[in-house]
Amino acid sequence: MEQKPTTVRRRSDRYLQEDRQQESPQPRSAPQPVFDYSRVEPEEPSTVSRMAAGMTGQPARPAAQETPQPRTPHRRTESQTQAAPRRRNAPTEDTPPEPVYRSRRSRGMLQSRTPATELKEKKPGQPRRPSAVQKNGRKKQEEREVPVWMRACLIAGVLLIMAGAAASLIMTGWLKQQQQARDEAEQRIVTAHPLQYRDLIERYAEEYNLQPAFVAAIILNESSFNSRAESSVGARGLMQLMPDTAQWIAHRLGLDDEWDVDRLWDPETNIRFGCWYFRYLNSLFNGDPVTVTSAYHTGQGEVSGWLLNSEYSADGLTLSLDTMPEGPTKTYAGRVIRDYGIYDRLYFHAFNPEITEETADE
Length: 362
What we know:
Strand content: under 5%
CATH architecture of the domain at 198-361: Orthogonal Bundle
Number of helices: 14
Helix content: 40-55%
Shape: rod-shaped
Order of helices and strands: HHHHHHHHHHHHHH
Number of strands: 0
Distance between the termini: 122 Å
Largest sheet: none
């Protein structure tokens, strides 16, 4: 079987032939006129020429006549055709047409099964279809986006956390305010209940079987720990003893020779006589604090009459702040009982032995 020469070999031979023709070109003939201007009729004189002739009285000169040349179609002569190089892709008798090399995209477009007539033309108002790249990008973006329900849960969680933090701050501030208010109230109580002459109070309270907190409450309400205090009726000293009562107490203690009414200004003597007198009242009224305090303020006879009255005393032995007759004695007894509990809580802790002064300060 005869083997045909390759296309590349034939192309190279053709290029060599073209190069030889370019190196020895044939002489070209003179170009032929395109138009025959001898056949063109002369033009008439123009209006400007006629007007100029009327003004000067001379005949108008005809316009310059040019000999137009007829136009002939531009064609190459035989020599030009022979000298002009042929295109590289132009086929000849010996060489087949050179194959046209196209890109993959153009080949794919040419090999499309859909003819061009069947392709839908895009209307002006019709939206453009997204490409595959755009679809993939949109899909990835949708995958990256957080779902709506998850976003709502996150927002709700953040709001709950913020609400909890705000409530915690508000509660902490309120608790601090309450603690500060309690501390201020406690400080006011401590300021309003000082304790002076503590050693004397504890010594004579123990000697006459009394509670030191009760003695301190009596001194606070009688003189506010002022040893030079004196009432309008003549009571003197810390526990506000009347001179005749103090003289009777000195007689019972065997101090007639040493007794002087000015000794009531002495804190030790006043506290000693007052504690002895409270032990005497305890023996009369069975140690009831309200009854003993009322007798110390208003007198033994008045309190004995209240005990006999069933309206004021239910058992005839004790008095109650709720059933006592209204007056200064009831107010005095209520203050003494209140301060009795405060002094015991702050300083003596007789009713709460497990509480010490250190824990009370804390």
